[in-house]
Request: fold
Amino acid sequence: SAVISQKPSRDICQRGTSLTIQCQVDSQVTMMFWYRQQPGQSLTLIATANQGSEATYESGFVIDKFPISRPNLTFSTLTVSNMSPEDSSIYLCSVEVVGRSLYNEQFFGPGTRLTVL
Amino acid sequence: GEDVEQSLFLSVREGDSSVINCTYTDSSSTYLYWYKQEPGAGLQLLTYIFSNMDMKQDQRLTVLLNKKDKHLSLRIADTQTGDSAIYFCAESLQTGANNLFFGTGTRLTVIP
Reply:
């Protein structure tokens, strides 16, 4: 399995500011993803973080609002820009090592709980 | 987009069996999964089933898949207080992990 840590674990931010969330994995992984889990709702994939190139965003999510970096195979950041209260969510990093299992298991970080006032 | 639905809440008494249900809309799923989320923790994969299987048993967990009705269930035998958590079903439409669609989650409360 992969051990994933996220920083910060939680934060309370003011409207209009930005927050960068870090995701660190204890081993090199091929695929890294960022999800959002809004209160009482399911997980929604924001984007796939690609090493050495721009992230691939899902419908409804754009780079200007959620810039993502992935400088190497063990680390990624997600920035939530120009925040509004609607951005209050748990943000989760997940990884998959292609070929490690037949069933495409994703390992999830503990999440970052963001509250925007 | 893909629709994966679950009931939001389930309460059971300790020692009873829990059955958590999930319905999905896309019949081209390859794998279906059950994840567990405990308070303050990330998601943990509990079990999975390949789409050409009907049933899978793993200790206290039994997964049933009805492809015709697009219905997935997770049965937890002898439910314990430590099983209290949110359970998410998820499906993968292709072998790529970026096609993972999650249900809304079912909050299981186990009453001592």
